[in-house]
Amino acid sequence: MTEDDLNNFSEYTKKIISFTKDQQLRGTLEEVIGNYSTTDEAHKNLSNAILESLQWIAQRTHSTEDVQTAAKIFILDSVKNIFLKYTDDIADQIITSVQYCVEDSLDKNNVERYVAWMNNGQVRKLLDFAASLNGNGNVKLKRNILSILFVNWNKIDDFNEYAAKIANKKISLEKKVEFYSILRDIINSDKKQYAEILVKSGLSGVSETVQNDLSGLKTPKYISSIRDAIRFVEDKEKDTNVNFLFQKNKEFGSIRKWFVNNPATTAVIEELKKIGIDTDFFVASGVTIAQKRSEGHYSDNWTESLTSIVLKLIGSKKNGTLPRISIPNIAPSSLYKKIADDYQKSLTGDKDSAKRVLKEIKLAMLKNFSNRKIPQSAIELLSDIEMLVKVLDYGGTLSFRGAKVVAKVWKRKIPNDLYDSENIWCCLFFPDNEYGEIQLIMMDPKTSLIQFFTEGLQEPVACAFAYAGISEGKPTIFVDTVELGALAYAALGQDKMKEFVYKSILKFTRKSGAKRVIFFANPEYGRSVEFCSYLHDFGLNKREVSFESVDSEDSVLKEFSKSNRHHYTDAFQLNPMKGTIEAFVFDV
Prior knowledge:
Blueprint: H1 3-20, H2 25-36, H3 46-61, H4 64-74, H5 77-85, H6 88-105, H7 108-119, H8 121-132, H9 139-147, H10 156-167, H11 173-188, H12 192-213, H13 223-238, H14 240-252, H15 255-259, H16 263-274, H17 279-282, E1 288-293, E2 297-298, H18 302-314, H19 332-346, H20 351-368, H21 376-394, E3 399-400, E4 404-409, H22 421-424, H23 437-442, E5 447-454, E6 462-471, E7 474-484, H24 494-512, E8 516-520, H25 526-538, E9 542-549, H26 555-560, E10 578-587
Parallel strand pairs: 7-8
Antiparallel strand pairs: 1-4, 2-3, 4-5, 5-6, 6-7, 6-9, 8-10, 9-10
Helix pairs in contact: 1-2, 1-3, 2-3, 2-4, 3-4, 3-6, 5-6, 6-7, 8-9, 9-11, 10-11, 11-12, 11-13, 12-13, 13-14, 18-21, 19-20, 20-21
């Protein structure tokens, strides 16, 4: 094991043993990390993800047997192989979905069956296709494919039954993927009547039915909103706080309007104003804080994309443009002669001709660059060729557009903003709903979220939890955790996205009227830990600092919540938000 492996192993082991009170688990955990310590650079965080899952199981169950059972499942060859089969956001989502299966079932046979489902037939083809989608504009298609993985492990047969019917429909690949994505939530919610409607009447039929079941609550037509509404039908019946929010939203039209018409919530809003917080901005405003766009160009039409590839190599006399990429030993005119007939047929929509053009170009490049250093521009062109071939084979759109990332103040939309667990990997949202926290945040005006959206997706890919209060006499925004999901880095990449998140939080702090932002320095899990490492590398130093939130006794929650009466935070757990914590401190 490397030194980093040993350090991580030691930290996770301490926590797991503290929850189970069993030193004998050390050997089991050592076997797990030893099994994954030789994985390549692309999977370097795999052992951390697995140990994190074992820590969660230990914390939840306090059972040595459960931890041992899960550990043995994680080192199965079938599980390890599916983890190593893909990279980047595909691998991240697969790891997370398998973790859910392991944690929920704690059964070897169930997990192996779930992994086999991902490895076979339609799901495997879709995952392979998603792995080829390296254009930013395809993030929506990729997101919908990855969402399919969260079919409950014990509902696979039901999903397959209706997925087979959808596969036989004469609709585009994108539309089929949208249907599969909606079907996932229909099956998970045991709403087979919706599945029948989906197959017969499509998304519009499901949307209309769900709206009727929600007493006319307006549900937008896009995919993620319909998905959320399907889950909301069930959750508002099971959870009193969800039903409370539903009723208030129905009565006033929005949570923000309820806030300004209720004595308890308006009292907290007045407290926020007294310490200098701009409540018109901070409380459910939906205001855009910042935005940034990555570089690129765009085409939804495969013939336009093919033309773009060809023109990079041969130029255009008509437009007076020269070739941008040269292939050694092949003149542009010579290359064009080889592909001219097929290229002209391609422009009329002949996909077979287009594939022959791409094959000829690819072979010419590989042959003539074989003994030379291939420039980055040629590498990128080969990647574009591979991607276009996939689109011609499977359908779909092709995009090389630079995607825009936007940071916004939370608007508290019902039901959409309750259901971000799988999007941003935070278990405080549904469907996990740990501690019932998202309902508490939704009904409490002293809390806010900073949401981060990637162009092409209606749901956020990341968020930061923000609480207003006082630190050492200064009006302060306390950021408990920053959560980043599988597609958080799709547009800008890791470093630039983390920088964008950090700078957006600073802007949020300034615009809210606060004079300080503090980031809790010791979060428990996942990319919150990763983001804190970024802050440290960025040059911020952590220190002990005091913080007390506005309305630290949670008067609104005590009046309205039917479950917990205090927020859960990594920093303060289930206690009132007041005290001294270790944090990164930044005065703005």
